[in-house]
Structure formats: structure tokens, C-alpha cells
Design a protein that fits this description.
about 190 residues; alpha+beta; tt1808, chain A; globular
Length: about 190
């Protein structure tokens, strides 16, 4: 491992260290937040189903709009910042480059989707959102999965911070404009 940056909150691991690690064999996700490794348990079936449905919805909307440049990939490594020593694995990523390799630079990401698990503490959620914003990811969606219907919040990057633009809860179609193209969806379709 490399020496830590001269900052008391930044841990000893770098993005290169993180990329060099073998993937967890148990399906868990290993992310790097401020130089510290964070392991999340393997996503639940409900979590994976919502990610799959969102991947399909976004891909279908991009294709219907005639957009062939962005691609939609699930659960891929995104290098947020070397200085922040942060690298995340959003549940869905829309890169503007060919989906080749094991990680993408944040500047190639048009949309990132984070599906929050019940175990994600508020500080982790805020840190991930701040990381995506600092990296300049134009659109970020967050999905909560309570016991009833999921709730999607779509954010647009404005002056370096995310502004909530759309919220989709309940049943019925909602036009989500905080995206590379407007995407109409019913969040009830994310529930298995």
C-alpha cells in the first residue's frame, strides 16, 4: 500500500491499490471511500431485481431516443477521485464510452444509480453522493426500498452539488428528466 496523503481523514489505500485487489468471491462489494476499504454484503434479490429493471428501463429509453453513444452497465467500478482516494460501485452506470475494462473514470459517467440497502448509514449515503458530485457526474439517481413501493429520487448536478429534480413514489408513470434523455417509468416496476 502507498503512504497516506497528509490528511487525517484519508486512509492508506489508493485507487490503484483498490483496482489491484481481487474481487470478493462471496459476491460482496468492495468500495474505497477516503482511502478506507468498505465491504458491503452481496445485494439481496430485491436489490438486484431493481437494478436489473432500471438497467432495462434506461437502456430502452436511450435506444428509443436514438442514442447509441451511452451504454448501460450494472455494478461496475467507477474511479471517483485519486486525491479523495474514492472508488465506488454504483448499481447502474451509464458511461459515455465503450464499456471496456474493469473500471470507468468518473468523467465518462453520464448517470449513476445507487440503490440504498437498509444497512447503508446516512453518512455513507451522503459521502457517496458528495463523491459523485465532486467528480462531476451530471445525473445521480438514488433508490430506497422500504417494505412497500420503492422510491426513486433523480438529481441533476448544479454548481457542483446535486439538486433534486424528480421524485417517483407510488404507482403510475412519472417522467424523469434528470437523465441523459427523459425516461418515463413506474417505480412499482422495480418491486419484485
Amino acid at each position: 500500500m502507498h503512504a497516506a496523503v497528509q490528511h487525517p481523514m484519508i486512509g492508506p489505500c489508493t485507487v490503484d491499490d483498490w483496482l489491484a485487489l481481487p474481487p470478493p468471491v462471496d459476491g460482496s462489494r468492495l468500495e474505497l471511500i477516503f482511502g478506507h476499504l468498505h465491504v458491503s454484503p452481496a445485494p439481496s434479490g430485491e436489490h438486484q431485481y431493481a437494478a436489473y429493471r432500471l438497467t432495462r428501463l434506461v437502456d430502452d429509453a436511450l435506444r428509443a431516443a436514438g442514442r447509441a453513444d451511452p451504454h448501460v452497465v450494472p455494478a461496475v467500478n467507477v474511479r471517483i477521485s485519486t486525491a479523495w482516494r474514492t472508488a465506488l460501485i454504483p448499481d447502474v452506470v451509464v458511461p459515455t464510452c465503450e464499456p471496456v475494462g474493469v473500471s470507468f473514470a468518473a468523467e465518462t459517467v453520464a448517470l449513476a444509480v445507487q440503490i440504498w440497502s437498509p444497512g447503508n448509514p446516512r453518512a455513507e449515503r451522503e459521502t457517496k453522493m458528495a463523491g459523485h458530485a465532486a467528480a462531476g457526474v451530471p445525473f445521480l439517481w438514488t433508490v430506497d426500498q422500504p417494505d412497500d413501493l420503492p422510491a426513486l429520487t433523480a438529481h441533476r448536478l448544479v454548481d457542483g452539488q446535486y439538486a433534486r429534480e424528480n421524485t417517483a413514489t407510488g404507482k403510475g408513470p412519472v417522467a424523469v428528466t434528470a437523465a441523459p434523455v427523459t425516461i418515463t417509468m413506474d417505480v412499482a416496476d422495480l418491486d419484485s
